[in-house]
From TrEMBL:
Residues 1-18 form the signal peptide. This is Acyltransferase. Keywords: Signal. The keyword Signal applies. The lineage of its organism: Eukaryota, Haptista, Haptophyta, Pavlovophyceae, Pavlovales. It comes from Diacronema lutheri (Unicellular marine alga). One of its GO terms (cellular component) is membrane.
Amino acid sequence: MRSFGALLGAFFAGHVAALRVGPAPGLRAREAVAPVSPPRGGGFAILFAPGIDGTGRCGQRQWRRLQHFVDAIDVLTIEPEDTSSFEEIVAFVLAALRERRAAGQRTLLVGESLGAVVSLGAALAEPDLVDALALINPATSIGETWVGPLGSFVADTLPEPLYRSLPAVITPLFGAAGWFEGVTGQPLPDFPTPQALLALSNQLSDVLPAPALKHRLGVLSDGAARVASRLASAKAAGGAAWPWARRCALIATTRDLVLPSTRETSRLAALIPGSTRRVVDGPGHACLDDDRVNLLQLLTAAAIFELARDDAGDAPAGAGGAAAGAASGSGGGAVAPGASIAARRAVPAVKRELSSSELAGERLNQLEGAAALASPVFFSRGADGSLERGVHSIPLPQTVGGRPVLFAGNHQLYGIDGPLLVREVLNERGVLIKALVYPPLMGKGFGDGADATSQRSSMPLHPLPYPPSGTAEIFEMYGARPISARVLVQLLAAGEPVLIFPGGAREVFKRKGEAYRLFWPDAPDLMRIAAKYDAVVVPFSGVGSDELGDVVVDTDEILALPIVGDWFRQRVDVLPSLVKDDLFVPPLVVPRVDRGIPRHYFLFGEPIDMAGVDRSDEAAIAQKWAQLRAAVEDGLAVLQRKRADDPYAEFYRRTAYERIAEGRQAPSFM
């Protein structure tokens, strides 16, 4: 069987190494890995210890997110024929930690299930070697459950054909229908037949044959007992002040039907003073490939990276200035040696603020509900211009030497696209883009906005329900700023990532027959400002919202109505105008009930580098402006063409899939 190190190493282009425990009696050395240069995570790395399968294949999306925060991600893999004891596996992990410490690198140990017991065992054995700890559905409670005895009985007594079919039967216990995709490396078919499930089941039994299962359960039982003994001894001695304790995240999922993880993490929290407990509602035991689990968010909400760096100083011994200056969210490329440490801490602070307020939670739930209905998918252009899934290759200030990055693209009906874009980059890259929004949407200049009620009444179209309740709060929580040339200049001068819609309210409130048309100003002032600050401009295109429904009465027709038109005109005439005809009058739209909510698609195009462009050169600036507009229009055409190949573009089919395969977003055209 090919090791996970080779698979994931190729996937991450050398940024992930694999640690392998070989068959007894010896241990295989860690495989070589090309160093990351320059370091991006301030001398910080992750070592992941997987569950009982030992493959370490699960959680690829989690590692894609976290790779922007660390210098390396190593994965412990245990081959099916391995007969190492618990103490031998822990010793191997400790040897790897010593090697890292000697190189001046700090380590976050992430363990899932059995791997959580191994990680905790290592942290208790040599506390000074572990800088931070994340334990996910820890199997430390194995001795109190049916899992050990039943698993041993199954491994000892079931005939091989029946054992090989067992994984397909027990799928509901472990999580969503495709939970074993991360273990076998084979995707679940869109509509799996019994034969397909049986084939995948056979592959899983190859990964964990009956003798290996029996041995791993023994390793787990022994490890859980050893860990329990050490924790009990520490408690009897009046408690231990482990240096990693306040940098320990205990993570449980509510539908873990294999282990009592919510209760066990609560018990561990009482035994590990200073640790942080997080509970994720919905996922099952095998949760790292569940879309509802975002390890980056969980770790930043618990301030794990922030605390570890604060406790150890801005750089470990042996780490250079570039490592100390590396900021969160970097994805490769040059890093400014003098980048501020504060940049790394901004996102964790934002995430804690978002999670600490009851009002914030309510507003975020609204946004998450909208995202669930739209099921947005994101694409970007790779270095060779090819289309790729996700936002992991888009430039951010930390990947372009601390220069500002300006995201500019089309706006869609009612403006839901902005929050979806900001949410995705924050979730996947840990970077908060500053969106520039129409000032009235933030209640600016209309009442004091001291609370939700006054903000509601301060909106220009009150008492009409637009913008929806909570809009201003969501914008403020996500760092949005009221748009103006002064604010744009301030943000670019500070090297921030900025989101702007050149078409403004004119594109949000389209007239009949104007879906996906751009209404941008002729003057290329935006590119002139971008050139002044050597910004990287990233064009983006969005498709979906303009088809939320049929425009029955558009803005112009509303304003032409007697009485009603006068009422609107009195309220919008005093509002700022940023684009020609950008009247703040929403059209009357009738939802297309027969088609439901359209799926939303976003494409980030090839960046336009404004460094070296003379802002006084009118021809050059005009050419860049035309290039930006053409890139957005091309992206719109690509998305509208490509979505025809999406088997789940249709709302009801997509929703049915996502309800059945809970925790998994429906596939798209790639």
